[in-house]
Amino acid sequence: MGLYSVAPIRLAEPLNQSSWELIKAVAIELPGASLDSARFGYADITCRSDLFGFPDYLELLVASDKQHLNVRSQSLIGFYDLGVNRRRVELLRSRLVERGIAID
């Protein structure tokens, strides 16, 4: 993993339609999140910051093994985000673990 990489989220069981719907629901519950587009195993989400409404890009992609969720979160404006994107991914990870969708 690179300097700004995060480990994939390990799913508790291979992805199915039910678990995918739960993953999307948890993701769009994140602060400022709105779903732009999705298909089975992939979602494109925009998250806007509370303070200035800056858009961040959140992308979810289930790996071909259907047991890992690759997540990318990045600022669309500027170069430094004060750790907001990493915290967003970790919040998503912890909420998925709490709901039994993912495991640590």
Which short descriptors sum up this protein?
six-stranded antiparallel β-sheet; alpha+beta; 2 helices; TATA-Binding Protein; 104 residues
Could you explain the architecture of this structure?
By secondary structure, this protein is α+β, with helices and mostly antiparallel strands. It has one domain (9-97): TATA-Binding Protein (2-Layer Sandwich), CATH 3.30.310.80. It is 26% helix and 34% strand. It has a six-stranded antiparallel β-sheet with strand order 2-3-4-5-1-6, with helices on one face. It is globular. 21% of the residues are buried. The mean pLDDT is 88.
Summed up:
This protein has 104 residues and is of the alpha+beta class. It has helices at 17-28, 84-98, and strands at 9-11, 33-39, 42-48, 55-62, 68-75, 102-103.
Secondary-structure blueprint of this entry?
Blueprint: E1 9-11, H1 17-28, E2 33-39, E3 42-48, E4 55-62, E5 68-75, H2 84-98, E6 102-103
Antiparallel strand pairs: 1-5, 1-6, 2-3, 3-4, 4-5
- Specify the number of helices: 2
What is the tally of beta strands? 6
Structural class given helices, strands, pairing?
alpha+beta
Stretches with pLDDT under 50, minimum 5 residues: none
Q: Spell the H/E element sequence.
A: EHEEEEHE
Assigned CATH architecture: 2-Layer Sandwich
N→C terminal distance: 18 Å
Largest sheet: 6 strands, antiparallel
Binned, the helix content reads 25-40%
- Indicate the CATH class: Alpha Beta
The fraction of residues in strands falls at 25-35%
Give the strand order, joined by hyphens, for the main sheet: 2-3-4-5-1-6
CATH superfamily label: Kinase associated domain 1, KA1
Gyration radius, to the nearest Å? Answer: 13 Å
Summed over residues and divided by their number, the pLDDT gives a mean of 88
CA-based shape: globular
Question: What number of domains?
Answer: 1
Quaternary organization: single chain
* CATH topology grouping: TATA-Binding Protein
